[in-house]
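Quick one, probably user error.
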């Protein structure tokens, strides 16, 4: 039994086109074998739901860098701790409510004149232009609950000032490629840990696999049995990711995801066949 935890952008989805087409073969295999695929992303619930729908995926998922953990009702035959029911999901919130994040940003922009532009103050059209996402996806990306991406146009001294303010408010900063992020102290590891516990409880012998491409994936890659680091578009690997037993996918994005997952399924099938023969 294999359970897959995967990042989306730059991992299952191409970093530029956001397509999962090159991972088609592996996606088909895991769907035939009914291998759970749990998506762990910095994307919003709306964006992840759209990817899940197009893949016919019905498994739990984690939104906004660990802020929200969504478990479809009836997924586990036991209650999920700290979960409340919302619609058809049991939800565990480890993130800080969005309004607190945007109030904080508005206050420091007002009081400290820091050159920050948050998602909440950008139009859907601007977000689309900055991210390369379609207008429809940009509007889903704007429906945020636990994490605020923002642009920062200041110098190092201003960034240090921002870090101090964020820290004294008990919030957290992540410096990103296109965007920086303001959130609570949640990360992908804390959130994945809750779901990993559920799966281990249900399937004690399961092999838990994790796939990611960037530093924000490290906390959950450290918790899985079989961590896979996906190549970046330029063929290099994120140097901050150092965890024992790390496997390196041979290609970037979804093509790397495809190779790594197919190899793993073949290995697992051959191991379980050996088991049957003994
Ligand atoms: Mg990524």
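Nope, works fine. Designed sequence:
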């Amino acid at each position: 039994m294999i359970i897959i935890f995967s990042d989306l952008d730059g991992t299952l989805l191409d970093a530029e086109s956001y397509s999962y087409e090159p991972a088609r073969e592996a996606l088909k295999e895991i769907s035939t074998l009914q291998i759970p695929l749990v998506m762990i992303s910095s994307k919003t619930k709306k964006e992840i739901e759209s990817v899940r729908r197009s893949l016919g995926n019905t498994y739990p998922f984690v939104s906004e860098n660990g802020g929200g953990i969504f478990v479809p009702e009836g997924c586990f035959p036991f209650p999920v701790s700290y979960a409340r029911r919302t619609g058809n999901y049991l939800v565990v919130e480890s993130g800080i409510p969005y309004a607190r994040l945007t109030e904080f940003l508005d206050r420091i922009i007002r009081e400290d004149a820091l050159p920050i532009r948050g998602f909440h103050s950008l139009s859907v059209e601007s977000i689309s232009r900055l991210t390369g996402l379609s207008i429809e996806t940009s509007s889903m990306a704007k429906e945020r609950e636990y994490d605020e991406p923002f642009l920062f146009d200041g110098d190092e001294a201003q960034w240090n000032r921002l870090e101090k303010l964020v820290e004294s408010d008990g919030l957290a900063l992540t410096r990103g490629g296109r965007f920086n992020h303001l959130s609570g102290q949640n990360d992908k590891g804390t959130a994945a840990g809750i779901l990993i516990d559920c799966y281990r409880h249900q399937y004690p012998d399961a092999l838990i696999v994790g796939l990611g491409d960037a530093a924000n994936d490290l906390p959950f890659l450290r918790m899985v049995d079989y961590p896979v680091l996906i190549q970046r578009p330029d063929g290099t690997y994120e140097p901050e990711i150092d965890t024992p037993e790390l496997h390196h996918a041979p290609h970037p994005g979804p093509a790397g995801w495809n190779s790594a997952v197919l190899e793993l399924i073949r290995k697992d099938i051959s191991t379980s066949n050996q088991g049957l023969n003994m």
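The chain has two domains: 2-94+187-277, 98-183.
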